[in-house]
Structure formats: C-alpha cells, structure tokens
Design goal:
Blueprint (H helix, E strand, L loop, with lengths): L3 E7 L6 H13 L4 E6 L9 E4 L2 E4 L1 H8 L4 H14 L3 E5 L2 H10 L4 E3 L7 H4 L3 E3 L5 H14 L6 E5 L14 H9 L2 E6 L5 H8 L4 E5 L17 H10 L16 H10 L2 E4 L14 E4 L10 H4 L3 E2 L9 E4 L2 E4 L5 H14 L6
Parallel strand pairs: 1-2, 1-10, 2-5, 5-6, 6-7, 7-8, 8-9, 9-10, 13-15
Antiparallel strand pairs: 3-4, 11-12, 14-15
Helix pairs in contact: 1-3, 10-12
Length: 352
Amino acid sequence: MKTKIIAEAGSNHNGCLNTAYKLVEVAYNSKADYVKFQIINPKSLYVPYYWKNDEKVENVVFKRRLSEQLTYAQWTKVKEYADKLGIPFTASVFDKSGVDFLIKLNVPFIKLASSDLNNTELIIHLIISTGMASITEIKNSVGYFLKHGKKSNLTILHCVSVYPCDLKDTNLNMLDVLKSTFSLKVGFSDHTLNSKAACVAAAKKVSAIEKHFTIDKSLDGFDHLYASSPSELTNYINDIRSVEASLVENKVKLKQKENITKIRARRGLYLNKAVKKGTIIKEEDVVELRPSNSLNPKDKLKVIGMSVAENINEFESIKIVNEQIYKDEKSSWADANSYWIKEMKAKKMFKD
C-alpha cells in the first residue's frame, strides 16, 4: 500500500491568509496526499507571563503566537481553497475547541501533537504522535483511545522531538516495535533535514509520513528554518520510494536533547487567577498550559478541592505539599523561557 505523505505547513502562514493559500499550493504541486496546518489557540496552550519576585515576566512565545493566529473563519477559507485545488486539508489541534471545529469541517483525520500525548481530554479524538514518550505512556494513551474510539481510526506516528533530528537519532526500528506492540497503523513524523529516514520508513511500509515545509526558509517564525523549501519537498516526495538506508536502535529513549523540549512543550497546571491563603480550589480555577511544571493534566482532579497554603499569583507555578497547594519555587519556566528566547533569536524573530 502506498505511503500517504502529509505536507506539514504547521504555523508557517505567520498569521497571513494569503501565505496559507500559497502553502496549500506548494503541497498540492509537490503531489503530497494531504496538507496539514497547526491550529493554535495561544490562550489554551501557553502561560501568558511568568512571575519573578511578584513581578510579571512576559512570555514572548505567547505574544508571538497571538500575533499570528488565524480565525476559524479564515481556516474555513483555507480548507475551501484546498478543496478547490484537490488536496485534502487537516490540522493538528491543541484544545477541544479545535477538535470540534475540525470535526465540523469533516477533515480526513486530526493530529494530536506529541506534547499532548498525556492530555486525555484530547486523546479520544485524534491520531497520536509519540515524541518524548516512553512505551508505557504510549500504551496508556492508546488504551484510553481504544476505550472511546474505533481502532481503525487510530494511527501512531513515531516521532523524535528534536528539531532538527540527526539521522542517527531517528530510531527507526521503533516503527517495528510499535507495529508488533499495538497491531495498529504506524507512521513516521520526520524532523530530519533530508529524505533518507523517510525512505527507510516507507520501505518498512508505514501508513503515513509527515514532513514540515515552508514557502521560504528565510522567513522569521518558529518552523521555517528547518522546514523543507518547495523544491525540497518535491524532491523529498520523489525520493521517498527509492532510497534505502540502514536502520538504527529499537528503543524509545528520552534523550537529553528532548528534556528541554519536554519542559517547554508539555503542559503543567496553573491557577488562572490570583488566590489568597485558605482558598479552596475549584475546577474553573485550574488550567493546563505550557510550560510544564511538577504537575500535569492528570493531576487536575487532585488539585480540585485542595486549599491554598499561601497567596499565589495568577499563572504562577504550583505544587502539592501535604495535600495543600503551594508556589513551586523550583519551577522550570526559566529554562523553557531561555530556550524560547534563544530559539527566536536564532530564527531572527526579534531583536535584542
């Protein structure tokens, strides 16, 4: 069976509808099977600011994401344009609203990013990617999906969440491990800079391969620098069924390079308003946002009903100690923020 190629446009529209149209054209002209974007609602994904000595520290990623956000009405136009050209449109989403929107658009599939593998609210709806995950985490997520969805609707994409990823780090034997462990459709989300790993994956008869692309690699933005240019994407797809390469080790490893990705990409639990000592936490007070902290989405039920042991600012990292809520003074937001600033400087997204 022919491997389906997903041309991943991500957020490379930079908030411009016409650029999104151009990305659809590139995917169509490269003969990809699908064009896929990322529909991001920053307010449901990122902490808008941090706290240091009771002073706010702006989250530059949150601000940038807000500036390049397309509306659902605009996304509908992009989907209609893809339909007109004759290439199926779909997206990765990061909240339930996005899932509901794509279901209304009747897209062929919906993608769950690696960063939300442990977000059970979304798992019942989506294809899942395995970056940053242990085999136990993958089993838990697949098991949760199968309790709520059809087995035939699920594809697992092997992924290493390092950008870019060296060929030697792609761990392509994991494709065989996933197939034998789950008896499900398996694909590959490719973050390397050429087609070699994808060609090995295709030789292993994966059901789908996903590849990031852009209209111009020199544009400022999160995903342009390491994405394929239009000509590279065309060559990538042309190469994908002809190149053979060696396989690598067959274990899932959370490499040191992924640790910072896990901090900045996974969600932690935060309070969406300032609270006073003695406050009892309600469900509507708790949000799951990036970056991660000592708590994760599955801990939300633990937090609800607990009392606050000290005054806590809105969006200040929290932890549980002796069944009470405290400030998390060892929060890793600073590491995540340093990474984002360094990354954005490298991609010329803002000046000092």
